[in-house]
Amino acid sequence: MLSRLSRSANADRNRFIALYASMAAGLLLAAGVFLYEARIIVTDGIQDEQAFAVLGAANRVLHDLENAETGQRGYLLTGDESYLLPYRQGIRDLDDTLVRLQQVVSADEKSVDLVRRIAHAKTDKVTELARTVELAHSGNPAAAIALVQTNEGKHYMDVLRADLGELMTDWRARRASATHDAHGRLAFGTGALVVLALLVCSLLVYTLFIQRRAFARVRAYSAALDHDATHDPLTGLPNRRKLLSAIDQLAAQPVADSSKVGLLYLDVDGFKSVNDTLGHSAGDKLLGRIAEALRSTTRQGDVLARVGGDEFVLLAADCGDDGQLRELATRLIGDVRAVGEKEFGSRFPVSVSIGIATYPDRVESIEELLDVADAAMYASKQRGRSTYTFGETPPKRASNVVTLAR
Is the pLDDT of residue 8 over 90? Predict the structure, then answer.
């Protein structure tokens, strides 16, 4: 049993190590995945911010061009120089906005090429606007209108809108892709966290189960060690150590006036003949059968112990009067004799000699029960065996001898 418990304990220890190693590896792997996902999400966020800046700058370029063209058209149609204010403001803002657009797309080769084309078309458009405004301002509005009617400016604006539209469409797609990717990774991370939490909880529950089982096995192992330390391995009965502990416990407890503690010391008669003739295995088998027979006669609260090779002790608290003890001793002798007859017939006369000691009527203390009963058992042996004898503490003799201390 101890070997099986030891193997189980080792198996539980290996399971603990495997579980903790798996949890550590899983957490490290999850941390690596989350760090990677977080880095990608940050990159998506940067790309989203960049796309937002590009789209804002591109819209601003188109807005400034439209403001400049609106001011130019208003001045050409009315001659009111107040229209030149939005025209001039649009031209000034356009330069700054285009510089900003060039800065935000500087890391993307395709966008840089588009912005270069936009800048070239913007120069052509601004030049066309300036020519018409100059003609109108010099007193030749008809020539300015005629220049507008050539649709040269419209051509420049169409080119600008096409290039700006292509640029904005590209960056809108990038922004949508970055946003979608970030959302997907966030959803994946959330799901992974939920799965990881469930997995960790499951592992913790399983670890708790394994731990409780391991503790139970440790307790069983400890109980088995205690049992082996206090019980006889052949018969399973308590050994001398357990018997002495039971005697000490009785000695530590107050005994009622009407209660009597009895101890019966039993020595098997004829055991040596069986052991010498048939061998130790037969002797061990006989001891096992005798232990079973004695156990069947013992009350639940009494202690039946094997204290030697063929010696047994029955400790009975509140054992009753001498008549009951005689009846018990007679029954024990008969039970052992019946075992011998069943096992060997008349070949080996097996019986038991018993010494009985009782407290407080025959011995002065519970601690003396074992020695007095042992001496009484030897008296039974001398009387012819297969009998019982009551023993008592010998009276103290008065002494006139004076012991001098040196």
Answer: no
- For 309, phi and psi rounded to 5 degrees? -55, -55
Going by C-alpha positions, the residue among 323, 320, 302 that lies closest to residue 259 is 320
Q: How confident is the model at residue 404 (pLDDT cuts 50, 70, 90)?
A: very low
pLDDT in tens, 339-390: 999 988 878 889 999 999 999 899 989 999 999 999 999 999 998 889 999 9
What is residue 381's predicted lDDT score, i.e. its pLDDT? 92
Buried (b) or exposed (e) across 62-93, using 16+ Cβ within 10 A? bebbebbbebbbbbbeeeeeebbebbeebbeb
Determine the length of the chain.
406
Half-sphere exposure of 312 (CA within 13 A, CB side): 29
Give the tokens for residue 194.
């939920």
Print burial letters for 260-298: b (CB count within 10 Å at least 16), e (below 16): bbbbbbbbbbbbeebbeebeeeebeebbebbbebbeeeb
> 342-348 long-range CB contacts below 8 Å, 24 or more apart?
342/289, 343/285, 343/286, 343/289, 344/274, 348/270, 348/273, 348/274, 348/277
Strand spans (E) along 149-293: 261-269
* φ, ψ of residue 306 in degrees (nearest 5): -100, 120
**What is the third-level CATH fold of 2-203?**
Four Helix Bundle (Hemerythrin (Met), subunit A) (1.20.120)
Contact 357, 390 (CB under 8 A): yes
Hey, what amino acid is at 79?
G
The edge-to-edge listing of strands for the beta sheet with 351-359 is 303-306, 311-316, 261-269, 351-359, 388-390
Please check whether residue 337 is in contact with residue 386, taking contact to mean a CB–CB distance below 8 angstroms. Answer: yes
Please give the CATH number for the structural domain made up of 240-390: 3.30.70.270
Cα–Cα nearest to 22, from 174, 147, 202: 202
Q: How far is CA 131 from CA 82, 153, 192, 378, 379, in A?
A: 18, 11, 64, 144, 147
Report domain extents, the chain: 2-203, 240-390
Residue 199 has pLDDT above 50, yes or no: yes
